[in-house]
Amino acid sequence: MKLTIERAALLKALGHVQSVVERRNTIPILSNVLLSADGGSLALAATDLDMEILDEAIAAVGTGGQITAPAHTLYEIVRKLPDGADIELRFSGEDPRLAVAAGRSRFNLPVLPAGDFPVMSNEGLSDKITVEAAALARLIDRTRFAISTEETRYYLNGLYLHTVVENGETRLRAVATDGHRLALADMPAPEGAAGLPGVIVPRKTIQEARRLLEDADGTVDLQISQAKVRFEFGRAALTSKVIDGSFPDYMRVIPKDNNKLVSVDNALFAEAVDRVATISAEKSRSVKMGVEPGRMVLTVRNMEAGQAVEEIEIDYDGEPFEIGFNARYLLDVAGQIGGEMAEFRFADPASPTLVLDPTDRGVQYVLMPLRV
Amino acid sequence: MTALCRDCFWTGEAPVSRRCPACGSPRLAVHAELSKLTVAHLDCDAFYASVEKRDRPELRDAPVIVGGGVRGVVTTCCYIARTYGVRSAMPMFKARRLCPEAVIIKPEFSKYRHESRRIMEKMARLTPLVQPLSLDEAWMDLAGTEALNHGFPALVLARLQAEIEREVGITVSVGLAPNKFLAKIASDLDKPRGLSVIGAAEAMDFLSCKPVSILPGVGPAFVASLAKRGFATVGDLAEADPKSLAQHFGTYGLRLADLAHGRDARAVDPDQERKGVSAETTFNHDLVAIPELEDRLWPLCEKVATQMRAGALAGRAVVLKLKTTDFRLVTRRRTLTVPAQTAKTLFATGRELLAAEVTGTRAYRLIGIGLSDLVEAADAHADLFDGGEARARKAEAAMDRLRGKFGKEAVVSGRALKRD
Questions:
Q1: In B192-289, which ranges are continuous DSSP H helix?
Q2: May I ask the CATH class of domain B212-260?
Q3: Least CB–CB distance from B381: residue in A253, A352, A368
Q4: Catalytic one among B33, B137, B294, B389?
Q5: The pLDDT of residue A303 is above 90
Q6: Is B243 exposed, middle or buried (0-12, 13-18, 19+ CB in 10 A)?
Q7: Is B137 a catalytic residue?
Q8: Shortest Cα distance, chain B CAs vs residue A243, angstroms
Q9: pLDDT digits over B301-316, tens only?
Q10: Cβ distance A36 to A46 under 8 Å?
Q11: Is some CB atom of chain B closer than 8 A to the CB atom of A287?
Q12: CATH of B276-418, one of 3.30.1490.100, 2.10.10.70, 3.10.120.10, 3.40.50.300
């Protein structure tokens, strides 16, 4: 294998694939990136066995061939080479190392045979569904903060991507929850999405997909099977296993009859919560909300750090009540509200509260209150 | 006969005077097998109360009851309170009536856990084979540690007792025997501050006149069914043919025969911590129908849930146990989304497991239910997917409080009224 490639092109492609490679690996080849030179391009692949990212870059290929080399090391080298450099990659039978050369720099890296590199099969995947990149980014952004990190409930460690039929319309929906809060975002289902199996896409996959979406132009192709999901972002592609488990019946916990409606300026609310939370206890981050006609009083009482109170004007005309929340959860939700106002729908201090964005009816947030 | 002074740790041939020839102390442990036995059971004396008394020396001569709290029952009472007839697990109001001058202290489990850890660490320094049973008791096997500990197990244990008294500030009782079963019985013989020995030679004699209820796993229902077949004492069981015991009571019959002879093959297993809380009951008449089984299941769920809440524990998995009339044991297990500590969740899950298992044709003689995969109950944040667990916890905790104040029968759930 022998080729020359522009530093910028190689850096971008390597940047796309290398982040899937774990820092520590017991299986040596998983630390490596698979380089395949053929025709006028260099293809790169990296995997952690659960997820695989492929990308391609234009290269001047002298001799085609395949080899694997340490992904993080190669990435660091390319990153440190001067901008605009032409990089030569060479692997021949004589030297059992990959030679990387640019200008006056020479590197020789250990390699492992390409034949040993595990490749993920695309078997059983559905036909391609085309989604607007921006629309997919919205689904992810609005929901991924609520993905659970608690490993005992592994089936919550991902984003539940599925379709639902509501009022005769099929919608593509993403739901994430950690049991304390839930985030839901949906959009009209793209063509071909109806009837696809619902999948729980792991947190890491969502993170990588979101990163690749930054460089995607226009649309993303999506393929889904019971066991896998594949995103194609132009040249780059991400294939991942999905979490083998059943997502809980989330519709059951989204409150339907909460009748205490409160409208509040979202930015003012977020700032106020952030301020009073300064002194909340590290662990519970508990904030008490006192709601009465016309105003909301946010209070934090902390045995050690003192007390904080802040008042906000709200639109509410029902009975006064008090309810507590984790400040971080309130801020997470406020951070996702796109419009000027946030709409809270309360039931009672022990029941889930619904938070809505009046400018985007395709998102819903559910918060479980804290005891205060 | 080997003797050991528990004050100055002198060892030698037992003196005629019954006093230590070195220091004159009467606290001698004397036993033919004293230098050979290795399995010990260590049990803290009135643990929670002792810790409280240590921290408040002015209470040394006062009756102290640790309790109230969630369940409203006596968790532990000191030996002075016991002379008034106060016992652990007694409702608080009754204890107060028996001993109005008692000082009542709310349990502070984090403190007890800390002290427990200190004691267990001291044990672990002597042998890797330490098997904790609860915060205040553990088995240990000191076989093969003589060179390491510079002394035979009984001597090492006497030193350990003194060290715990000196450094932790509470007393413990120790039972030394050839196996776990006898060691546990022995530790109870000379409380508090005791060191008792049951040797292999006298085990059968010792057990023969004891009631069958001394055997582990023999509860009130089993006592009754044993009595029906003419087994009142452990001696009766020892005389019986193991084969006929096996015929009547299945594999447990063989275990009974072993225990009755003072035999217990279970090793001290350091990896076996408390894994769960469970309750079971044997029926007077075999039961076939689901509704009848459910009626028996509910009180067990309440019992387990009450215990879980008292210990501030929650369990991730529900285990249902059924025994058929031919002594076949069936266990079914389900993992919950959220750790539970209420009878409601336990019963709801148990009921589903029961429905999946029971066909309505097979007859059962026993039902049991438990929670395992225990975690410390975190009550701060309710969970969206707990299936009503948080709500039920509130209601059941309120019932705990009422029962604590007015007695067990003060509140009875409607479900529990249906009994035969």
A1: 203-208, 220-228, 234-239, 242-249, 251-260
A2: mainly alpha
A3: A368
A4: B137
A5: no
A6: exposed
A7: yes
A8: 16
A9: 999 998 888 777 888 8
A10: no
A11: no
A12: 3.30.1490.100
**Burial grade of A66 (CB within 10 A; 0-12, 13-18, 19 or more):** middle
> Within the 218-277 window of chain A, which residues sit less than 8 Å (CB to CB) from chain B?
248, 253
Domain made up of B47-109: CATH architecture: 3-Layer(aba) Sandwich (3.40)
Question: Which one, of B402, B382, B395, lies nearest residue B342 by Cα?
Answer: B395
Q: Characterize the bridge pairing of strands B172-177 and B195-197.
A: parallel
Chain B residues within an 8 Å CB radius of A157: none
Calculate ∠ Cα B309-B312-B316, nearest 5°: 85
- Set of chain B residues whose Cβ sits within 8 Å of the Cβ of A369: 382
pTM higher than 0.90? no
Domains of chain A in sequence order:
2-116 (3.10.150.10), 129-252 (3.10.150.10), 260-367 (3.10.150.10)
Tokens found for residue B246: 């096996």
Dihedral sign for Cα atoms in the order A321, A327, A328, A334: positive
Amino acid B272: pLDDT: 63
Please state, in angstroms and as integers, the Cα–Cα distance from residue B280 to each residue in A74, A278, B242, B277, B368, following that order: 63, 50, 25, 11, 4
Rounded to two decimals, the ipTM of the complex is 0.74
pLDDT band (50, 70, 90) for residue B420: very low
